[in-house]
Amino acid sequence: MPSRELNRRSFLATTAATATGLLAVRTAPAADDFGGFNVGVQSYTYRNFDLEPMLKKTKELGLKNAEFYSKHIPVDSTADKLKAILALCKEYEVTPLGFGVSGFTKDHDKNKKLFDFGKAVGVKYLSADPAMDSFDSLDKLCEEYKIAIAIHPHGPAGKGRHQWWSAEVIMKAVKDHHKLIGTCLDTGHLLRMEQLNEKLDPVQQIKLMGDRNFALHLKDHDNKKKTDVPFGDPAGILDVPGVLKMLKEVKFTGHIAIEYEANPNDPSPDMKKCVAYVKQAAGKLG
To answer: Are 141 and 168 in contact (CB under 8 A)?
Structure first.
């Protein structure tokens, strides 16, 4: 066997042994209200709001974590601006656990800048839409920064499907790469695949990814009306208790980011229903 392959296998074996422990140590303290899960919001839910109103509404929901997207924490923020943003997050008691969704290519220097940004913000993972030729670069950066790359499926795209549309596709791509390269599955986009006659069960998708689940975008979807709906809505199809149970089974220590893409001008009433439903479901798990 060529020495290059031996080195690669040794590298993967070493990182596999440590990655899960690193993430478990680095995650924020779990909220008792959610049965030990770290539950927060994907800030895209409040995309029609500036940062401070978004933080205020997140606090009103009783959530203390967030995965931010670029409107709320711009990647090109100066050091002073980033300091002010993080001070505001601290004031509202909302901890940035993740950021994205970000694109990655084979351009190592450009990828490194995103990891530098992630380190400055203090996130544990970057939800990602990586190009197939980016993984050699991402192997090195995940090892250096100990920040996870969480590939995010986008379901139907245009007349076809997004390149990362299922756990099967993602696992095939990442299985021989750094153990900190995995998924931020999106239950809503997985459910949307039914529109292309591809019925995916989010519970089984989580099971397939196992310890490569680093985050989750939790949302339900009405495929007939093609819109998100609150958890528990009769038109919804997501098995929230089943999702939480499977996360427990795979020993998930990452971030559950509740996301709601409907009604961007006033998502809080439906978000309150979502938060209450997750609390109830998590409470029943014990």
So the answer is: no
